Amino acid sequence: MALTDRVLTRATLHRQLLTGRAPMGAVAAIGHLAGLQGQEPNSPYLALWARLRGFSRDELTGALHERSVVRGTLFRGTQHLVTGDDYAWMRPLIGGSLGGRFTRDLAAIGKDELAEAVREILAGRSLTRPQLRDALLERWPGTDRIAMAYAAQFLVALLHPPPSGVWNSGRAVPMVLAEEWLGRPLTTAPVADLVRRYLAAFGPATVKDVQAWSGLTRLSEVLPVMGLRTYAASDGRVLYDLPELDLPDADLPLPVRILPDFDQLMVSFADRRRVMDDDVRAKVCVGAVIAPTILVDGRVAAMWRLSGKRVFEVISLRHLPAGTRADIEAEATALLSFMDVEDGEVRFT
């Protein structure tokens, strides 16, 4: 069955809870979404505000303190917020794909020896990355400081407990052993489980899309034998999907949505044309930075930034009809209220 670009976009946004704010709690939503990008502490809060009805910042902060949601290095070696239940099996599954460059820089030490040292140093306590790095350098002086700091985090399952990841938290990142923070051992699961979770949150998608999100490779040997439904994209690519999930109508109306920097909708596909054209992507995705965006009819139409602490600046990337500008202004005004910005102003540039 052939799938039009319009339907593909709507299917993705529907599964990302962006076709209408869902009456869902934060923990359930993070589980449904297979996690949230969490490089910047405020981004997951803004991502949930865009997706959930009645979401409050205290709800996510409480979940982090209660450990039902955790923050740590996960897919593609980047910070994610996932449920504690999901982290327990997702981290072992993708652990081998993390930190290849840094661990190669420390080949003389040996992965097992370094990992054991990290566990010994962190047992029963929390340290920041520089503190852990310095403790390791006492054992292996003269070692590359940057490689040491990051290799430890990739080799061993570590989590960043609050205040890390809490709204407006600082840059200091405490680290603890994941098993101690969760109060249970990590488990194993088949790769197919991870594929299904991805498709439920981002599908339909290609093998390369799943690999781009997860950081895993050789999934072309996995998806074709999972009994998945297949579609043909407009350019001929094979799209896989869960057979029990339906596709939305091509005429499903899509509301304006304001997304934070590093939102997973922008980074979880090898081919991002389902949500933005290539020329728009060149402006939104610059190096390792993913700008905050505004969706109009399901596609990136503008970027935004908070200027001078109270001015919501809209940087248009394509023509915005007058009615659309009013919708953006209404959504931006609501977002400023969520962020506790008083006397906020929306400005188009």
TrEMBL record:
Q: Which domain of life is it from?
A: Bacteria
One Pfam family it belongs to: AlkZ-like
Q: What is the name of the protein in this document?
A: Winged helix DNA-binding domain-containing protein
Tell me which InterPro entries the record gives: AlkZ-like (IPR009351)
The organism named in the record is Actinorhabdospora filicis
